[in-house]
Amino acid sequence: QSEDSDKSSKESDSETEVEHVSGYHKLLATLKTSPESESEEDESESEEAEESEAEMDSEGSQEIREAEEGEEDKNDDPEEEEAKDTAEQMLSQEQADGADTSCDPRNGVIEEFTDVKHESEFSLETNFVEEESGDCNADRRDSDPLKQHMDKELEEKEIQKMSMLPKTSSQSQWPRLGQVIFSSTLEKHKTLKADKEVDVKQLHLHKPLESTWPKVNKQFLSAVDKPIDSSFTPLQRELFCVMNSYRDLFYPERNALTNGEEIRHAYCLHALNHVLKANAQVLSNNAKLRDRKPGTNTDDHRDQGLTRPKVLMIVPFRECALRIVHIFISLLEVNDKKKIDVSNKKRFKGEFGSDPEEKPPNLKRPEDYEAVFAGNIDDHFRIGVAILQKSMRLYAPFYSSDIIIASPLGIRTVIGAEGEKKRDFDFLSSIEILIIDQADIYLMQNWEHVLHLMKHINLLPLDSHGVDFSRVRMLNLNNWSKYYRQTLLFSALQDPQINSVFNKHCFNYVGQVAVRNVPLTGSISHVVVQLPHVFRRLEADSVTSVIDERFQFFINKVLPEYHDAVMSHTLIYVPSYFDYVRLRNYFKKEDLNFTHICEYTKKAAVCRARRFFLKGEKQFLLFTERFHFYKRYTIKGIRNLIFYELPTYSHFYSEICNMLKATDSGVDATWTCTVLYSKYDAQKLAAVVGIDRTAQMLQSKKNVHLFVTGEN
C-alpha cells in the first residue's frame, strides 16, 4: 500500500494492535512513513472548509462551528488522536514493507502487471542492428565520451587509491553555473571548461537525437540564445558539458518555477543518448558474432553489465515520471510521420496521468507549491522502460529494462530490508547513470529511502539472471561498477544530508563537479512586515550534541520569556519531527497552554488548533516544517514567532514571517521574531540573512538584532 494514503485498510487496524506499539516505535514510524498522511483526494474535498474554518470569527459561520463542536465530542484529545494515527501509520508501513503488493496496480511495475508479451521484440540478445542506424564511423566512435569512459581499464592500485586517499579539489568560475568545484582522487584531470558554443554534431549524440533535440528543446530558447546556439539554453549547455564528460554532478539551484523543466530535458537527453549508444553497440556486436568465423576471439565484444538496467532515475512523484517518458517519446520521434511504437502507452497515461478536475481551482497556494505539486503526486511507483531502435516498451520487467524510473519509496519496497524473504536489488548491479532529481523533496518524504538505495546500488548480483559472461565487461566482473557510475544530483538547496550522499556515495574515477554559489542577500529581504528579528546563538561542541543543547537552550533561556500573557499568540516553527515530539511532550508535562499541528494531525484537529490559536484560547502553537511544506496554509493570529531551528527551505522564513500581516489586530509594534542557531547552521543561516551577515554572526558570540522595515 502507498504510505501516503489514508484508506480503509489503515482504519480497520484493531485498537488492540495499536496498543501494542511502543512509544519508541510510534516515534520511529513517523520517520519511516510519508509525511502526507491524508490522501490528496481527501484533502482537496476539505481544504476549502479548513480555510473557512480559520476565518470563522470574521465570517461568523455558525454551521461550521457546530460541525466542529461535534468533531470535538467524538475525539476530545487531539494528542491521543494524533498518536493513534501515527501508530496506524507504522502498522501500515510494516504491512507495506512485508506484504505482497503485486495485486495493487498503483504500485507500478510489479510481476503480473509487467509487460511480458513483447519480451523477444525488445531482447538485446536476439536482435541485430539495423543498417540505417548502424555503427558510426570508427574515428568518431573512438572519441565518443561513453566509449572513452567505459573502455578505460583501471588498475588495482588505482582502486585502492580511490578507496583510501582524500580527494583533491580545484575551483573555476563558469558564466552560468557560477562557482564550480572539481574534485578527484586520481591524478589531476584536465580542467573542464564551459563551452561558449555547442555544435550538436560534435556532442556524439546518437543519430535521431541530433535532429530531434533542437525541436524538442525549442520551447526554452529565447531570442537572445538563438544567435549563439540553436539547441541549448546557457544553463543546459554548461550542465550537458559536465554530463557528457561522465563526471558526477551536483547542482543545488534547481527551481521548479524557473529552470526545472530545462534541467529535466537536459538529463533526459543524456540518459537516452547513453542508452541508445550502449544498445547500438550490443546489437552491432550481435551481428559481428553471428557472422564471425569459428575460433575467433570474442573478448573484443565485452559490451554489457551483469544485468541490463543502465539508467536509474529517482523522481518524487508520478507526474515527474510522466513528463520524463513524454520527453523520451518526443526525442525518439524524428517527425510526425515517423511515430515510434510505444507499448502500454494507454495504461501508462491512466496510472501516471491526472484529472484536472480533481483539484478545486479556487484553492490559493504559492506559485512554487503549484509547480512542485502539479499533476499526479502519488509517491509510490516504479516503472521499467526498454528502448530498442524505433520502439519503446513501458512496464518492462526490470531485468529487461534499460531505464528504471522510480520514487525513493517505490524502489525501497523492492529492495526490502535484511531478513525479508521477498527482496531484490540485483537489477541495480550495473547501473551506469544514477539521476536523483529534486533531492530536497526527499528530505520532506523520507531521506532514509535514499540512503538505503545508495547502500544497495552497484553490488554484485546474487543470481546470474541468464547473463552471457563472455559479453560482460571486466569492470563489472571485478565489482568495480561503482567507480564507473555517473551520479547526477539536482536539488533546490544546499543541505548537509544531500552533500553527504554526493561526497560519500559517489566514487566516479573521473571525479565530481559541484556548483557552490553563496547567497548574497538571503530570504529575509523578502519579509514585507515591519518586524524585529533576534538571532540567538547557542553553543554546541558537536553536530550530535547540538540537538540536546538546542532543547536545553530553548526551555531554559527562551521559553521563560514567553510565559507572560502579553506574549500570547506565539507560533513555534519546528523543522524536525523528533524535536516537535520532544517539545510537545515537554509542553504537556509542564501543563502549558498550547496546541499543535504536524504532518500527521488529522484535518479536524488542524481546524481546531487553528481556531484556538486565532482566538487566543491557546498561547502557543507548535508547528512542523513538513506540515507547512505539504499544506502551505496561512496561520492567522500570530504575534510572536520562534524559529526553533532555521528552516530547510530559506523562502519558508519569509513566508512564515509574512503571515503576521494576516493578523488584523493593530498591534504591529508588539510583533517579535526569535531565531535559534548554532555554528553548524552556516548554510541555512546564509540562505536567510546572506553570506556577509552570516560571517559576522558566526564570528560574534552575541545575539544579533536585525530590523526589517519591509523595504529591504
TrEMBL record:
Biased composition (Basic and acidic residues): 1-22
Gene Ontology molecular functions: rRNA binding; U3 snoRNA binding
The UniProt record lists the keyword Phosphoprotein: yes
Biological process (GO), any one: maturation of SSU-rRNA from tricistronic rRNA transcript (SSU-rRNA, 5.8S rRNA, LSU-rRNA)
Pfam families reported for this sequence: Utp25_C, UTP25_NTPase-like
InterPro entries reported for this sequence: P-loop_NTPase, UTP25, UTP25_C, UTP25_NTPase-like
Primary localization class, coarse: nucleus
Region (Disordered): 1-109
Chain ranges of the UTP25 NTP hydrolase-like domain: 246-513
GO cellular component: small-subunit processome
Keywords recorded for this protein, A-Z: Developmental protein, Nucleus, Phosphoprotein
Stretches with biased composition (Acidic residues): 37-61, 68-83
Keyword Membrane in record: no
Residue stretches making up the UTP25 C-terminal domain: 523-707
Taxonomy, superkingdom: Eukaryota
Localization per record: Nucleus, Nucleolus
Similarity section: Belongs to the UTP25 family.
Record text on subunit structure and interactions: Interacts with CAPN3; the interaction is required for CAPN3 translocation to the nucleolus.
Its biological purpose: Component of the ribosomal small subunit processome for the biogenesis of ribosomes, functions in pre-ribosomal RNA (pre-rRNA) processing. Essential for embryonic development in part through the regulation of p53 pathway. Controls the expansion growth of digestive organs and liver. Also involved in the sympathetic neuronal development. Mediates, with CAPN3, the proteasome-independent degradation of p53/TP53.
Record-given protein name: U3 small nucleolar RNA-associated protein 25 homolog
